[in-house]
Amino acid sequence: MINNYKYTALNRQRKLVKGQMQAPNKEILANFLYEKGMTLKDVKEHNSTFAFLNNYNIGKTIPEVEMIFILKQLSAMIKAGMRSAEAVEVLAAQTKNKQIRTILFDIYFNVSAGMYLSDAMAKHPNEFPKLMTNMIHNGETSGDLVQSLENLAMYYQENREVRQDIIGALTMPTLYIIMGIVVTIIMITFVLPGYVSLFAQTGRDLPLPTQILLDVGN
Hints:
This protein is 67% helix and 11% strand. It is mostly helical. It has a three-stranded antiparallel beta sheet with strand order 2-1-3.
């Protein structure tokens, strides 16, 4: 689980800077700041209701569109020569959604500590299904991680397009059904009662279909 910390550190100009950051533990936070040219002087765990809720999400946090974007960006950055940890760090820093950023930073810290990218993702099963982590693991062990990420991005993109096509194909029939129901209700409620009065004046019996509709309406 990722924790929230408030820290004080010395930057490259030997000036004290204060900040707030999420990390699995204090040691990893210190190493991260050191890589950025800062020396940690003081750190305290910062607990808040919002931070607590960020660690316990119900259901899926990363939308499919965002997942496709993450996979494509990871593939592009690693293809350009970046390490997995650096690529995830860049994504986390650019992400505006705080919950998604928390997940990405957790992955970054674990990968920086020596964990496989697939294993770090597997710690968030609600976001990264087993099929995805298995394919990424195969890519890591075979040395073809970029291709695995590209294949996953294409897979999710095609699934999304097919689903949108199906929704589009079902939209018009659904609208026709709704319109038919509305027209039937209007006929039973407003039109048929007028015919009842007309047949009552002539003394003739109502046709069977009309009588059935009236019974249903009643």
